[in-house]
């Protein structure tokens, strides 16, 4: 569904049940484990201004959660009444006498206009190089880390500043963080600059086994082109007749740097396999704009929505060439017919799609999004299986060390203690359960039961523990917070 279609669908539903009492004010795309959904802000249009009623979630099939009723409207009015009884800020300030508005004073206005932006001041201070200027840069640079696009460059500058201030340990820490950012975006030129600075800081012997050296080698090796379409992970070891058909249906397309292959929201009509170069996956932000969430290397299969979403399918992300790249293009109709003829091939494509959905969910997740792409890839590799339950099913019994951790893709998991008839908690969709227990080998006191029509991604506990053992404390701390 498009944003416009969601807006119209929810508006029509509100008109049917509430007349002109309620209205839609905002529609934004959100990422869920089960796929793309839409968050819709619904308001009560009052003469005094809009009153927030609820944020409803609309799935790809058009289903709306929660279903709005009179209780939601009554609660919105009550919230407004409670807030209107609170003393306003202006009333409290009035007790202290007249508050002067200094914005109109010419001297202050001129001072505000003359002040340079923080990024300009920080770069200029770092470039001057004297100790006072470096200390000024140290104070200013952390304020620039909120800019996602320039985070790597900012961390690199912070490392260089600490190096000049004779703080090699802190410089090395910032440099490793910068290298992870560059590797996430596959900015090989900047990654090589970070490696050169790390070599200068640590020396040749220490650099050889360092995280930055590993990131550089991994990035270089992943760029090696594949010679055949059948080297793609999703096409390995297929029956020969199916291989021959895939090769005969594929056409090769060359993309220039920054050329868009598809845009998010466009009709999805093809499946793609990266032959050489690099494709960036760009997702729309809820607040507007887009960001690069990962790079796809030779051998990646993309565009599964075109064959799994039917003829009305749309692209769930934008794909852009980050350098000169070649991709094989396979028409969706041809792939769909092959999936219909070979069930195992169809399941393989469906599994690839689900992994990509979870990857997109990770990239936008408040906690998982703090991890670099390499760690998220390793987390994905810990997935043991995805399973759906038509009846209530015990997933993790109480007082037994779990062999898996869970991510709820659809439905919910109820937690029960002892013989209690009511659950002590419910784990809803898009939430983790049991990650900390799986990592530390702790037996939970509650029994986890999947409710009817629930789908769960299971993560192998042994692989999660191995991931934590070879990761930094920061990574372990992030994983412990899941759920």
What structural keywords apply?
single chain; 483 residues; alpha+beta; Serine Threonine Protein Phosphatase 5, Tetratricopeptide repeat; Jelly Rolls; 4 domains; 4-stranded antiparallel β-sheet; 19 helices
Question: Can you put this structure into words, describing what you see?
Answer:
The protein is α+β, with helices and mostly antiparallel strands and 483 residues long. It has four domains: 3-90; 118-222, Serine Threonine Protein Phosphatase 5, Tetratricopeptide repeat (Alpha Horseshoe); 229-364, Sandwich (Jelly Rolls); 382-480, Jelly Rolls (Sandwich). It is built from 19 helices and 20 strands. The protein is globular.
Tally of separate domains: 4
Task: Kindly provide the radius of gyration, computed on alpha-carbon positions and rounded to a whole number of angstroms.
Answer: 27 Å
CATH first level of the largest domain? Mainly Beta
Name the overall outline: globular
Instruction: Tell me, rounded to a whole number, the average pLDDT.
Output: 84
Q: What's the helical proportion of residues? A: 40-55%
Summarize the model shown:
This protein is 43% helix and 24% strand.
Q: Which helices and strands occur, and which strands form pairs?
A:
Blueprint: H1 3-18, E1 22-32, E2 35-46, E3 49-58, E4 64-65, H2 70-84, H3 89-94, H4 106-114, H5 118-128, H6 131-140, H7 151-164, H8 168-184, H9 188-202, H10 204-208, H11 211-222, H12 240-249, E5 251-255, E6 260-262, E7 270-276, E8 279-284, E9 290-296, E10 301-302, H13 305-308, E11 318-321, E12 325-331, H14 332-341, H15 343-364, H16 373-381, E13 383-389, E14 393-396, E15 404-410, E16 412-416, E17 425-428, E18 432-433, H17 435-440, E19 447-450, E20 454-460, H18 461-469, H19 473-480
Antiparallel strand pairs: 1-2, 2-3, 3-4, 5-12, 6-11, 7-10, 7-12, 8-9, 8-11, 13-20, 14-19, 15-18, 15-20, 16-17, 16-19
Helix pairs in contact: 5-6, 6-7, 7-8, 7-9, 8-9, 8-11, 9-11, 14-15, 15-16
């Amino acid at each position: 569904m498009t944003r416009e279609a969601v807006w119209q669908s929810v508006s029509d539903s509100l008109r049917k049940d509430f007349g002109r009492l309620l209205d839609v004010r905002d529609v934004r795309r959100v990422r869920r484990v089960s796929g793309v959904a839409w968050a819709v802000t619904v308001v009560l249009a009052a003469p005094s201004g809009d009153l927030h009623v609820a944020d409803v979630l609309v799935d790809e099939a058009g289903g709306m959660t929660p279903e709005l009723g009179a209780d939601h409207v009554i609660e919105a009015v009550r919230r407004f009444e409670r807030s209107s009884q609170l003393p306003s800020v202006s009333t409290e300030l009035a007790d202290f006498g007249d508050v002067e508005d200094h914005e109109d004073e010419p001297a202050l206005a001129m001072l505000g206009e003359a002040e340079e932006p923080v990024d300009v001041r920080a770069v200029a201070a770092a470039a001057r190089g004297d100790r006072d200027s470096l200390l000024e840069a140290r104070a200013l640079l952390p304020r620039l880390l909120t800019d996602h696009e320039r985070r790597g460059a900012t961390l690199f500058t912070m490392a260089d500043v600490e190096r000049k201030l004779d703080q090699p340990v802190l410089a090395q820490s910032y440099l490793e963080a910068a290298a992870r950012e560059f590797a996430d975006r596959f900015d090989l030129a900047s990654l090589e600059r970070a490696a050169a600075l790390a070599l200068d800081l640590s020396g040749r012997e220490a650099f050889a086994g360092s995280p930055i050296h590993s990131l550089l080698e991994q990035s270089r090796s992943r760029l090696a082109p594949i010679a055949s379409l059948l080297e793609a992970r999703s096409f390995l070891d297929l029956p020969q007749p199916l291989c021959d058909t895939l090769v005969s249906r594929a056409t090769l397309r060359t993309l220039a740097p920054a050329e868009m292959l598809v845009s998010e929201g466009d009709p999805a009509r093809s499946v793609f396999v990266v032959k050489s170069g690099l494709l960036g996956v760009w997702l729309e932000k809820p607040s507007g704009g887009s960001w690069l969430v990962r790079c796809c290397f030779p051998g990646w299969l993309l565009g599964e929505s075109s064959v799994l979403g039917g003829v009305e399918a749309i692209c769930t992300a934008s794909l852009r060439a980050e350098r000169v790249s070649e991709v094989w293009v396979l028409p969706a109709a041809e792939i769909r017919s092959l999936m219909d003829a070979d069930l195992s091939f169809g399941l393989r494509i469906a599994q690839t799609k689900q992994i990509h959905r979870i990857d997109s969910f990770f990239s936008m997740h408040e906690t998982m999004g703090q991890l670099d792409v390499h760690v998220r890839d390793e987390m994905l590799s810990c997935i043991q299986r995805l399973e759906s339950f038509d009846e209530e099913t015990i997933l993790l019994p109480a007082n037994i060390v779990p062999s898996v951790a869970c991510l709820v893709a659809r439905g919910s998991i109820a937690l029960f203690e002892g013989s209690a008839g009511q659950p002590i908690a419910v784990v809803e969709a898009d939430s983790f359960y049991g990650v900390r227990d799986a990592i530390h080998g702790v037996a939970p006191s509650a029994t986890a039961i999947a409710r009817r029509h629930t789908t769960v991604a299971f993560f192998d506990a042994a692989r999660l523990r191995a991931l934590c053992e070879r990761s930094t404390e920061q990574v372990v701390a992030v994983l412990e917070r899941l759920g």
